[in-house]
Design a protein that fits this description.
This protein is an alpha/beta fold. The chain has 14 helices and twelve strands.
Length: 369
Protein backbone atom coordinates (compact mmCIF):
# COMPACT_ATOMS: atom_id res chain seq x y z
CA UNK A 1 0.00 0.00 0.00
CA UNK A 2 1.29 3.47 -0.92
CA UNK A 3 1.23 5.95 1.92
CA UNK A 4 -0.05 9.40 0.94
CA UNK A 5 0.70 12.63 2.75
CA UNK A 6 -1.75 15.50 2.84
CA UNK A 7 -0.15 18.97 2.59
CA UNK A 8 -1.88 22.19 3.52
CA UNK A 9 -1.99 25.15 1.11
CA UNK A 10 0.45 27.02 3.39
CA UNK A 11 2.86 24.08 3.41
CA UNK A 12 2.73 23.83 -0.38
CA UNK A 13 3.39 27.57 -0.70
CA UNK A 14 6.30 27.34 1.72
CA UNK A 15 7.76 24.45 -0.24
CA UNK A 16 7.42 26.42 -3.47
CA UNK A 17 9.16 29.47 -2.02
CA UNK A 18 11.97 27.35 -0.61
CA UNK A 19 12.36 25.60 -3.96
CA UNK A 20 12.50 28.85 -5.91
CA UNK A 21 14.99 30.33 -3.49
CA UNK A 22 17.05 27.19 -3.70
CA UNK A 23 17.13 27.49 -7.50
CA UNK A 24 18.20 31.12 -7.18
CA UNK A 25 21.09 30.11 -4.94
CA UNK A 26 21.97 27.22 -7.25
CA UNK A 27 22.43 29.76 -10.06
CA UNK A 28 24.61 32.07 -7.96
CA UNK A 29 28.43 31.90 -8.28
CA UNK A 30 28.98 30.81 -4.66
CA UNK A 31 25.79 29.29 -3.25
CA UNK A 32 25.47 29.02 0.50
CA UNK A 33 25.49 25.37 1.57
CA UNK A 34 22.58 25.99 3.91
CA UNK A 35 20.92 29.39 3.28
CA UNK A 36 19.09 31.02 6.16
CA UNK A 37 15.47 32.16 5.84
CA UNK A 38 16.74 35.74 5.41
CA UNK A 39 19.09 34.63 2.61
CA UNK A 40 16.27 32.73 0.95
CA UNK A 41 14.03 35.80 1.07
CA UNK A 42 16.80 37.99 -0.33
CA UNK A 43 17.46 35.56 -3.14
CA UNK A 44 13.85 35.95 -4.19
CA UNK A 45 13.84 39.72 -3.73
CA UNK A 46 16.95 40.31 -5.84
CA UNK A 47 19.36 43.24 -5.47
CA UNK A 48 19.19 44.39 -1.83
CA UNK A 49 18.78 48.00 -0.73
CA UNK A 50 21.74 49.23 1.29
CA UNK A 51 22.31 52.33 3.42
CA UNK A 52 23.86 55.16 1.41
CA UNK A 53 27.08 56.72 2.64
CA UNK A 54 27.22 60.34 3.83
CA UNK A 55 28.68 63.00 1.58
CA UNK A 56 30.41 66.32 2.14
CA UNK A 57 31.15 69.35 0.06
CA UNK A 58 28.91 71.52 -2.06
CA UNK A 59 26.91 70.57 -5.15
CA UNK A 60 26.04 72.81 -8.07
CA UNK A 61 22.38 72.11 -8.84
CA UNK A 62 19.68 73.20 -11.25
CA UNK A 63 16.22 72.44 -9.87
CA UNK A 64 13.33 71.80 -12.24
CA UNK A 65 10.01 72.31 -10.48
CA UNK A 66 6.25 72.84 -10.84
CA UNK A 67 5.10 74.33 -7.49
CA UNK A 68 2.99 72.59 -6.06
CA UNK A 69 2.77 72.50 -2.28
CA UNK A 70 5.46 69.89 -1.64
CA UNK A 71 7.63 71.54 -4.31
CA UNK A 72 7.41 74.80 -2.37
CA UNK A 73 8.61 73.15 0.84
CA UNK A 74 11.40 71.34 -1.02
CA UNK A 75 12.53 74.61 -2.60
CA UNK A 76 12.58 76.37 0.76
CA UNK A 77 14.60 73.49 2.19
CA UNK A 78 17.09 73.72 -0.68
CA UNK A 79 17.38 77.51 -0.47
CA UNK A 80 18.08 77.18 3.24
CA UNK A 81 21.19 75.11 2.50
CA UNK A 82 23.64 77.46 0.73
CA UNK A 83 26.46 75.68 2.54
CA UNK A 84 25.66 72.46 0.64
CA UNK A 85 23.75 73.49 -2.49
CA UNK A 86 24.83 76.11 -5.02
CA UNK A 87 21.48 76.62 -6.80
CA UNK A 88 22.38 77.94 -10.23
CA UNK A 89 18.74 78.36 -11.29
CA UNK A 90 15.18 77.14 -11.05
CA UNK A 91 13.71 75.88 -14.31
CA UNK A 92 9.94 75.58 -14.30
CA UNK A 93 7.71 73.09 -16.07
CA UNK A 94 4.05 72.52 -16.65
CA UNK A 95 2.90 69.95 -14.12
CA UNK A 96 0.80 70.38 -11.02
CA UNK A 97 -0.71 73.50 -12.62
CA UNK A 98 -0.30 75.36 -15.95
CA UNK A 99 3.07 76.96 -16.59
CA UNK A 100 1.67 80.46 -16.01
CA UNK A 101 0.91 79.40 -12.42
CA UNK A 102 3.98 77.27 -11.69
CA UNK A 103 6.51 79.89 -12.83
CA UNK A 104 4.80 82.53 -10.71
CA UNK A 105 4.78 80.21 -7.71
CA UNK A 106 8.49 79.48 -8.10
CA UNK A 107 9.21 83.21 -7.89
CA UNK A 108 6.98 83.54 -4.82
CA UNK A 109 8.91 80.77 -3.04
CA UNK A 110 12.15 82.54 -3.93
CA UNK A 111 10.77 85.65 -2.21
CA UNK A 112 9.83 83.66 0.91
CA UNK A 113 13.42 82.43 1.17
CA UNK A 114 14.90 85.89 0.49
CA UNK A 115 16.95 84.42 -2.39
CA UNK A 116 16.65 86.98 -5.23
CA UNK A 117 20.03 85.74 -6.47
CA UNK A 118 18.45 82.57 -7.92
CA UNK A 119 17.16 83.10 -11.49
CA UNK A 120 13.92 81.47 -12.63
CA UNK A 121 13.43 80.24 -16.20
CA UNK A 122 10.11 79.07 -17.67
CA UNK A 123 10.15 76.00 -19.86
CA UNK A 124 7.65 73.86 -21.72
CA UNK A 125 3.93 74.66 -21.32
CA UNK A 126 2.92 71.10 -22.25
CA UNK A 127 4.33 67.57 -22.26
CA UNK A 128 6.43 66.34 -25.19
CA UNK A 129 3.60 64.54 -27.01
CA UNK A 130 0.54 64.42 -24.73
CA UNK A 131 -2.07 66.82 -23.46
CA UNK A 132 -1.28 68.24 -20.02
CA UNK A 133 -2.94 66.99 -16.86
CA UNK A 134 -3.09 68.98 -13.63
CA UNK A 135 -3.32 68.29 -9.89
CA UNK A 136 -5.30 71.32 -8.74
CA UNK A 137 -7.61 68.97 -6.85
CA UNK A 138 -4.62 68.27 -4.57
CA UNK A 139 -2.74 71.57 -4.52
CA UNK A 140 -5.63 73.99 -4.98
CA UNK A 141 -6.25 76.38 -7.87
CA UNK A 142 -3.28 78.49 -6.80
CA UNK A 143 -1.00 75.45 -6.65
CA UNK A 144 0.14 76.42 -3.16
CA UNK A 145 -3.05 76.37 -1.13
CA UNK A 146 -2.58 77.32 2.51
CA UNK A 147 -0.37 80.39 2.87
CA UNK A 148 -1.26 83.88 1.66
CA UNK A 149 0.31 84.44 -1.75
CA UNK A 150 1.66 87.74 -3.06
CA UNK A 151 2.68 89.03 -6.46
CA UNK A 152 6.27 87.88 -7.02
CA UNK A 153 8.82 90.63 -6.62
CA UNK A 154 11.50 89.31 -8.95
CA UNK A 155 11.21 88.91 -12.72
CA UNK A 156 11.17 85.79 -14.85
CA UNK A 157 14.27 85.39 -16.99
CA UNK A 158 13.66 85.94 -20.72
CA UNK A 159 15.52 82.81 -21.89
CA UNK A 160 13.60 79.56 -22.36
CA UNK A 161 14.46 77.02 -19.66
CA UNK A 162 15.60 74.39 -22.14
CA UNK A 163 17.94 76.82 -23.88
CA UNK A 164 19.30 77.83 -20.48
CA UNK A 165 19.96 74.17 -19.62
CA UNK A 166 21.76 73.56 -22.92
CA UNK A 167 23.90 76.71 -22.72
CA UNK A 168 24.82 76.16 -19.07
CA UNK A 169 25.70 72.50 -19.40
CA UNK A 170 27.71 73.03 -22.59
CA UNK A 171 29.86 75.55 -20.71
CA UNK A 172 30.24 73.41 -17.57
CA UNK A 173 33.14 71.08 -16.69
CA UNK A 174 32.51 67.31 -16.84
CA UNK A 175 30.23 65.88 -14.13
CA UNK A 176 29.93 69.25 -12.40
CA UNK A 177 26.18 69.92 -12.28
CA UNK A 178 23.40 67.87 -10.67
CA UNK A 179 19.97 68.18 -12.26
CA UNK A 180 17.17 67.90 -9.72
CA UNK A 181 13.70 66.99 -11.02
CA UNK A 182 10.71 67.78 -8.80
CA UNK A 183 8.34 68.00 -11.79
CA UNK A 184 7.47 66.04 -14.91
CA UNK A 185 10.77 65.61 -16.77
CA UNK A 186 9.75 67.54 -19.90
CA UNK A 187 12.44 70.23 -19.72
CA UNK A 188 15.27 67.79 -18.98
CA UNK A 189 14.18 65.42 -21.76
CA UNK A 190 13.84 68.23 -24.29
CA UNK A 191 17.35 69.44 -23.49
CA UNK A 192 18.80 65.92 -23.76
CA UNK A 193 17.01 65.34 -27.07
CA UNK A 194 18.10 68.66 -28.56
CA UNK A 195 21.70 68.56 -27.33
CA UNK A 196 23.04 65.11 -26.42
CA UNK A 197 26.49 66.70 -26.06
CA UNK A 198 25.42 68.15 -22.66
CA UNK A 199 25.48 64.73 -21.02
CA UNK A 200 29.13 64.72 -19.88
CA UNK A 201 28.54 67.85 -17.75
CA UNK A 202 25.78 66.16 -15.73
CA UNK A 203 27.00 64.53 -12.54
CA UNK A 204 23.61 63.00 -11.73
CA UNK A 205 19.91 63.48 -12.39
CA UNK A 206 17.97 63.16 -9.12
CA UNK A 207 14.20 62.82 -9.50
CA UNK A 208 11.06 62.37 -7.42
CA UNK A 209 9.65 59.68 -9.65
CA UNK A 210 8.28 56.20 -9.75
CA UNK A 211 6.96 53.44 -7.54
CA UNK A 212 7.36 49.69 -7.43
CA UNK A 213 5.94 48.16 -4.28
CA UNK A 214 3.33 50.76 -3.31
CA UNK A 215 1.56 51.54 -6.59
CA UNK A 216 0.92 54.94 -8.11
CA UNK A 217 -0.71 58.10 -6.83
CA UNK A 218 -2.44 59.17 -10.05
CA UNK A 219 -3.30 55.70 -11.43
CA UNK A 220 -2.90 52.29 -9.78
CA UNK A 221 0.38 51.89 -11.67
CA UNK A 222 1.84 55.37 -12.13
CA UNK A 223 3.08 58.33 -10.10
CA UNK A 224 2.10 61.84 -11.16
CA UNK A 225 5.43 63.19 -12.39
CA UNK A 226 5.95 60.29 -14.76
CA UNK A 227 2.33 59.86 -15.81
CA UNK A 228 2.18 63.55 -16.75
CA UNK A 229 4.93 63.00 -19.36
CA UNK A 230 5.99 59.35 -19.63
CA UNK A 231 7.84 59.91 -22.90
CA UNK A 232 10.03 62.52 -21.21
CA UNK A 233 10.70 60.22 -18.27
CA UNK A 234 11.70 57.45 -20.67
CA UNK A 235 14.20 59.76 -22.36
CA UNK A 236 15.80 60.64 -19.02
CA UNK A 237 16.01 57.08 -17.69
CA UNK A 238 17.46 55.85 -20.99
CA UNK A 239 19.85 58.78 -21.44
CA UNK A 240 22.92 57.03 -20.09
CA UNK A 241 23.32 59.76 -17.47
CA UNK A 242 23.37 58.47 -13.85
CA UNK A 243 19.83 58.70 -12.45
CA UNK A 244 18.79 58.57 -8.81
CA UNK A 245 15.06 58.01 -8.32
CA UNK A 246 13.58 58.86 -4.94
CA UNK A 247 10.66 56.47 -5.27
CA UNK A 248 7.24 56.68 -3.69
CA UNK A 249 8.21 53.45 -1.94
CA UNK A 250 10.58 55.61 0.11
CA UNK A 251 8.58 58.86 0.22
CA UNK A 252 5.43 57.20 1.55
CA UNK A 253 7.38 56.19 4.64
CA UNK A 254 7.88 59.89 5.43
CA UNK A 255 4.41 60.62 6.74
CA UNK A 256 3.10 63.98 7.83
CA UNK A 257 0.86 64.11 10.90
CA UNK A 258 -0.61 67.08 12.79
CA UNK A 259 1.98 66.56 15.54
CA UNK A 260 4.78 67.14 13.05
CA UNK A 261 3.34 70.51 11.96
CA UNK A 262 3.41 72.27 15.35
CA UNK A 263 7.22 72.74 15.49
CA UNK A 264 7.19 74.72 12.25
CA UNK A 265 4.53 77.10 13.50
CA UNK A 266 6.48 77.54 16.73
CA UNK A 267 9.67 78.63 14.95
CA UNK A 268 8.58 82.25 14.84
CA UNK A 269 9.91 82.92 11.34
CA UNK A 270 7.83 83.49 8.21
CA UNK A 271 9.15 80.38 6.46
CA UNK A 272 8.06 78.21 9.37
CA UNK A 273 4.57 79.71 9.20
CA UNK A 274 4.42 79.18 5.43
CA UNK A 275 5.42 75.52 5.81
CA UNK A 276 2.89 75.01 8.61
CA UNK A 277 0.13 76.60 6.51
CA UNK A 278 0.97 74.35 3.56
CA UNK A 279 1.11 71.28 5.77
CA UNK A 280 -2.28 72.18 7.30
CA UNK A 281 -3.76 72.29 3.79
CA UNK A 282 -2.15 68.93 2.99
CA UNK A 283 -3.66 67.45 6.15
CA UNK A 284 -7.09 68.78 5.16
CA UNK A 285 -6.71 67.06 1.78
CA UNK A 286 -5.66 63.83 3.49
CA UNK A 287 -8.76 63.98 5.64
CA UNK A 288 -10.99 64.50 2.59
CA UNK A 289 -9.22 61.87 0.49
CA UNK A 290 -8.43 59.16 3.03
CA UNK A 291 -10.59 59.97 6.02
CA UNK A 292 -7.54 60.52 8.21
CA UNK A 293 -5.23 63.51 8.71
CA UNK A 294 -2.06 61.91 7.42
CA UNK A 295 -0.17 61.94 4.16
CA UNK A 296 3.23 61.45 2.51
CA UNK A 297 5.86 64.15 2.08
CA UNK A 298 7.23 63.75 -1.44
CA UNK A 299 9.56 66.42 -2.89
CA UNK A 300 11.44 67.32 0.32
CA UNK A 301 12.79 63.76 0.21
CA UNK A 302 14.79 64.72 -2.89
CA UNK A 303 16.47 67.64 -1.14
CA UNK A 304 17.10 65.47 1.92
CA UNK A 305 18.91 62.98 -0.32
CA UNK A 306 21.16 65.77 -1.62
CA UNK A 307 21.95 66.92 1.92
CA UNK A 308 22.03 63.66 3.90
CA UNK A 309 21.99 60.56 1.67
CA UNK A 310 22.64 58.40 4.72
CA UNK A 311 18.94 58.85 5.56
CA UNK A 312 18.10 56.52 2.66
CA UNK A 313 18.59 52.99 1.38
CA UNK A 314 18.75 52.09 -2.29
CA UNK A 315 20.01 49.72 -4.95
CA UNK A 316 21.51 50.06 -8.43
CA UNK A 317 18.98 48.51 -10.80
CA UNK A 318 17.59 48.78 -14.31
CA UNK A 319 14.49 50.99 -14.62
CA UNK A 320 12.26 51.51 -17.65
CA UNK A 321 9.12 53.59 -18.12
CA UNK A 322 5.96 52.21 -19.72
CA UNK A 323 4.69 54.55 -22.44
CA UNK A 324 2.13 52.38 -24.28
CA UNK A 325 0.23 50.33 -21.71
CA UNK A 326 -3.55 50.44 -21.69
CA UNK A 327 -3.63 50.38 -17.89
CA UNK A 328 0.05 50.90 -17.03
CA UNK A 329 1.16 54.03 -18.90
CA UNK A 330 3.67 55.86 -16.74
CA UNK A 331 4.57 52.83 -14.65
CA UNK A 332 8.21 52.38 -13.65
CA UNK A 333 9.40 48.85 -14.33
CA UNK A 334 12.15 48.11 -11.81
CA UNK A 335 14.29 45.04 -12.49
CA UNK A 336 15.66 43.89 -9.13
CA UNK A 337 16.42 40.37 -10.40
CA UNK A 338 18.29 41.14 -13.62
CA UNK A 339 15.68 39.67 -15.95
CA UNK A 340 16.39 42.12 -18.78
CA UNK A 341 20.18 41.66 -18.50
CA UNK A 342 20.73 45.40 -18.90
CA UNK A 343 23.35 47.39 -17.07
CA UNK A 344 21.70 49.13 -14.10
CA UNK A 345 20.84 52.72 -15.02
CA UNK A 346 19.30 53.96 -11.76
CA UNK A 347 20.01 54.21 -8.07
CA UNK A 348 16.51 53.29 -6.88
CA UNK A 349 15.82 54.72 -3.41
CA UNK A 350 13.29 52.51 -1.65
CA UNK A 351 13.63 53.29 2.07
CA UNK A 352 13.84 56.49 4.10
CA UNK A 353 14.45 57.42 7.73
CA UNK A 354 11.30 59.43 8.44
CA UNK A 355 12.38 60.81 11.80
CA UNK A 356 15.76 61.85 10.48
CA UNK A 357 14.22 63.51 7.45
CA UNK A 358 11.70 65.52 9.48
CA UNK A 359 14.49 66.63 11.82
CA UNK A 360 16.57 67.77 8.83
CA UNK A 361 13.61 69.66 7.35
CA UNK A 362 12.95 71.45 10.64
CA UNK A 363 16.61 72.38 11.04
CA UNK A 364 16.81 73.88 7.54
CA UNK A 365 13.50 75.77 7.60
CA UNK A 366 14.48 77.31 10.96
CA UNK A 367 17.42 79.01 9.18
CA UNK A 368 15.17 81.04 6.87
CA UNK A 369 13.66 84.49 7.53
Amino acid sequence: MTKTTSLSRRALLGASVAGLAGMAFAQSPSPSPSPSPAELAQALAGTPATRLPPTSGKRQVIIDTDPGQDDAIALLMAMAAPDRLDIKALTVSVGNLPLSVTEKNARIVRDWAHRPDIPVYAGYPRPLVREPIFADDVHGKSGMEGPTLHEPRGPLMPTHAVQYLIDTLRAAPPRSITLVGLAPLTNFAAALNAAPDIKPAIAEIVVMDGAWGVGGNITPAATFNIYADPEAASVVFRSGVPVTAISHDAARRVLLTPERIAPFRAMGNNAGKVVADIFDSMMAYGLRRRGVAVGPVYDPCVIAYLLQPELFKGAKVSVDVETKGEFTTGATVVDFRGYNRRTPNTLWISEADAEGLHALLRARIARLP
